[in-house]
Every structure is written in structure tokens, then in C-alpha cells.
Design brief:
The protein is an alpha+beta fold. The protein contains 13 helices and 22 strands. The N and C termini lie far apart (68 Å).
């Protein structure tokens, strides 16, 4: 491919990328993010050589993450000296990444990324840079593609990084360049660079993919795997952009009310849409209210879609980040609460006239359903799956908890009111019995009674809520996983 370039070598290849993608225009002021490693060092040398051709001005930014003590300080000194040798201004910064990660409960990689981009944007604003150049390359994209694939990401996560990012303000001139090309360029031109030993630490998934998995695929399965994954990611990116346009149009049509902390969707606009579009609209709404989608998994999205497709009876779901979804009539409301969700009532408390809620198989984080019992009282059901071996003696678990053999259940279960025709086999009994229409809680120290709710698998009752499970669904010696259900009364 490079032999076809009129200007051979990596410098010519990068120039072609910049021009093809229109990454800069004459007069731009480009802030180059330089860590001192091989990739960013090569980028700075190449851009310094191309600056007169492109008609742009360059400056250098370096953030000292303070993660490797003296080595981090030596990285900073190296970058400052490199910028000086090229006659370029250098703007260094320092951040305690480890303290930031602990304060905000982030892993080190995510904490470093957030602080790095905050520093780069602040520095660009302060010194009038129009564009920020980073050294992300094709192999970075291949690694990110596989990491996101392993996490179960959809096309939004698999599209990885294009030539532009962050609203076009960040450019990536190396987007089509491989790590092998970069190292060859540095060697041929006798350019020194810093080596971050943390990049060799195999405890990080990215490093295992970089040093073990990709070379294995390259050598034993498919030569050029990096370029293949990049091509696939570009296809996903194009598809994602197309679907984003469709989603945005439907989203705007469905929005009824919108504030900084809440958003209301019209169910009638969405109910007939394809589930793939519903997932995207739901995630867009959640992201608007929560401000990000961290800890919002595929399971959470599916639960919210299911809530949208249920009947209009008042019901709600709680999600990470104090995010709550409330369904009532034609409205699906997403709201971020100021306080803990379990202490915050939903929009209105009216006992449902009838109850008929499908219960899907819980994901890794479980899920919760709220049912109002009156203007000031309600009950909540928490569903989760746990390994049977982690449970001790269940004899004293009490009537507000149920432990059911997961293999005996047919999903979705149904949570509904009791019926006059209902019969079940209470735990420890041989005969069948009619569930009570109301269940008094006085015997466990709660001076209230609740309506008769039952959890049904297929056509068989598995739990009379707050009373007793069915004998046929109890945990036995061969049980591997248990559906744990907790009933909370307020």
C-alpha cells in the first residue's frame, strides 16, 4: 500500500492520512499530546517535519501522572527536552492519578484517561490551540476492539476510534498506522524514546491482548489481523452513525418532558418500534439523565425496554447511579434522585388494581421491582442469582426471603395477585393448599398486612410472597444456582 504513495515512508503515509481525512487546515494551532513513549514521540517528530507543509503551528503537552515516581519525572524531563530541541513550546502538567482513581472509584486506566483529556482540553483552551493531536494507532484500535468484544459490547463499543474524536477537536494522524511501522521509523531515524514498564505488566487485559493474543492470531491464524479488525471497526462505525441518525429522530419524537435530572418518553410513540431501536432510545434517555452510562449493562437496558413494553400500571425499576425508571400510562420517566433510591418514593403511590409483572432471569447485578401498597406504604422485590454453595442453613431465613432452585424455573416468571383457583404445596407439606388473600406480618414484628402476591413459573406457584415457597422448588443437594428473592416492606 505504501509503495503507491507519491511520498514514500511513514511521514508520507501520515501526510496522506491528514489530507484524506482533512484533519487540519492552514493556520491551525495543533497541541500534540506527548507521553515520551514510542508512539507519541514518533508523532511529534513527523508532525514537526510536516508543519511547514501543512501550514500549522505546533505546541507540546505532557501530563505527569505521578504513578511511577522518578521514572514519571524523567518522562517529563525527556518530553520537555525533546520539545526544546525541536524549537516548540511545551506545556507540562501534573496530576495524582492514583488519588483521583480512589476518590472517584475508577480503575487507574480510566482515571488517567479522564485526567489526561481534562488537562489537554484545558491546556488547549489556555494557549489557543484549535486542535489536539494524539498518537492512537491501528494496533490500539485492534486491542480496544477485542477488549470491548470480550465485554459483550454492541456496535457502539466495537466501532473504536476514528481519525477524529471528541466532537472533532481531537485528531489521530496515526489511525491507519501500525506499531511495527512506528518502531521501524524510530529505529531508521535514530530517535530515542521512553519505555513505560507498566505496558509490559500482564495483569492488565490490554497488555495480554497486545503481547500474547494478537501475536498468536497474527502468527497462527490470520496475518494482518490488526488491519482486519480496524476495517471491521470502521464498518461498525458507519453502521452506528446511520443508526444514530434514526435513533435521534425517533428519540426527539418520543420526548415529552426534559430537564437536567429527568426525561419523559411517550410509550405510544415507541411501543411498535423494533427492539434494536428501543435499546438505543432507552440508553440515550438513561445517558441524558445519568450523564454517563457507566455501570449500565445490557441487562439493565433490557429491563428498561421490558418496562416500556408492559401495561400502563404504575411500576418502577432502580438502576445504578440513583437512576430510576417509572412507567405509568403512556409515560416512561427516567429520573436521577438526589437521595438513596430505597428512601425516595416514586411519582405517586396508588395500589395497583391488578398485578401481572413478567420477571426475567436476573443478570449479574440483579434487579428490583417496587409495588405501592398505599399513599405512604410500598413493598419492593429484589431478585438475584447466587451459587447454592454460598448459602448456609436456610431454616431461619424468614418469610420475606425465598430461595428457589434455578433449574426448576421457567422464565419469565410472573408476579401477580392471588386467585381463588390458586393452589400450591407449602414447603414441608405433602398436600396442596389455597394461598391466603392477605398475609399478616405481625408474627415477624411488622404490624401490617399485605395483599396476596404469588410468583408463578409456567402454571405453577413457586412462592406465596411473604408466606412460604412451594415444596417442589426448594433448594436440594443437587442444586447449583439459586434464585434469591427478598421482600422489603416500608
Amino acid at each position: 500500500m505504501k509503495k503507491e504513495l507519491s511520498n514514500p515512508g511513514l511521514t508520507g503515509f501520515v501526510l496522506e492520512t491528514i489530507r484524506r481525512e482533512n484533519l487540519v487546515v492552514p493556520g491551525d494551532s495543533v497541541l500534540v499530546a506527548v507521553s515520551g513513549g514510542a508512539d507519541s514521540t514518533a508523532l511529534l517528530h513527523i508532525l514537526a517535519g510536516l508543519a511547514p507543509v501543512l501550514g500549522v503551528n505546533l505546541a507540546v503537552a505532557h501530563l505527569n501522572h505521578q504513578l511511577r515516581g522518578r521514572e514519571s519525572d524523567e518522562d517529563q524531563a525527556f518530553v520537555e527536552q525533546l520539545a526544546k530541541s525541536l524549537g516548540l513550546p511545551c506545556y507540562p502538567g501534573r496530576e495524582n492519578v492514583r488519588a483521583f482513581s480512589e476518590e472517584h472509584r475508577l480503575n487507574l486506566e480510566e482515571a488517567a484517561r479522564r485526567l489526561r483529556y481534562r488537562f489537554l482540553f484545558d491546556t488547549a483552551d489556555r494557549h489557543g490551540a484549535t486542535t489536539i493531536a494524539t498518537a492512537h494507532h491501528a494496533d490500539d484500535n485492534a486491542e480496544l476492539f477485542l477488549m470491548n468484544l470480550f465485554r459483550g459490547s454492541g456496535s457502539a463499543g466495537l466501532k473504536t476510534m476514528g481519525p477524529r474524536g471528541h466532537g472533532g477537536r481531537v485528531i489521530r494522524p496515526f489511525v491507519d498506522t501500525t506499531r511495527q511501522d512506528i518502531l521501524a521509523y524510530l529505529h531508521e531515524n535514530h530517535h530515542s524514546f521512553r519505555h513505560d514498564r507498566s505496558n509490559d505488566d500482564r495483569t492488565f487485559l490490554r497488555n495480554r491482548i497486545r503481547h500474547d493474543l494478537l501475536p498468536l492470531i497474527e502468527n497462527s491464524y490470520h496475518q494482518g489481523i490488526g488491519r482486519t479488525l480496524n476495517r471491521t471497526a470502521r464498518i461498525f462505525g458507519d453502521d452506528e452513525a446511520f443508526l444514530d441518525n434514526i435513533t435521534e429522530s425517533i428519540f426527539q419524537e418520543a420526548v415529552r418532558e426534559q430537564t437536567d435530572q429527568s426525561l419523559t418518553l411517550a410509550v405510544s410513540v415507541l411501543a411498535s418500534r423494533h427492539r434494536a431501536i428501543l435499546r438505543r432510545v432507552i440508553r440515550k434517555a438513561m445517558g441524558h439523565v445519568k450523564k454517563d452510562l457507566r455501570r449500565i449493562s445490557f441487562v439493565h437496558t433490557e429491563q428498561a425496554v421490558d418496562l416500556l413494553l408492559m401495561d400502563g400500571t404504575l411500576r418502577s425499576l432502580d438502576f445504578p447511579g440513583r437512576l430510576r425508571a417509572v412507567r405509568r400510562d403512556d409515560a416512561l420517566v427516567f429520573r436521577r434522585e438526589d437521595g438513596p433510591l430505597r428512601k425516595t418514593p416514586i411519582l405517586e403511590r396508588k395500589p395497583p388494581e391488578s398485578l401481572d409483572i413478567p420477571i426475567p432471569l436476573p443478570g449479574p447485578e440483579g434487579f428490583r421491582i417496587e409495588i405501592p401498597l398505599g399513599p405512604t406504604r410500598w413493598c419492593r422485590f429484589q431478585f438475584s442469582v447466587v451459587p447454592a454453595e454460598t448459602l448456609g442453613d436456610l431454616k431461619h431465613s424468614g418469610p420475606l426471603q425465598a430461595f428457589l432452585d434455578l433449574d426448576q424455573l421457567i422464565f419469565p416468571l410472573v408476579l401477580r395477585n392471588t386467585r381463588t383457583t390458586d393452589r400450591f404445596q407449602p414447603l414441608g407439606m405433602g398436600g396442596r393448599k389455597k394461598p391466603p388473600a392477605r398475609i399478616a406480618m405481625n408474627h415477624i414484628g411488622i404490624p401490617v398486612s399485605i395483599p396476596g402476591f404469588v410468583l408463578v413459573s409456567g402454571d405453577r406457584i413457586v412462592w406465596v410472597c411473604g408466606y412460604r415457597i412451594d415444596e417442589r422448588f426448594k433448594r436440594v443437594e443437587s442444586t447449583e444456582n439459586v434464585l434469591k428473592i427478598e421482600l422489603f416492606l416500608d
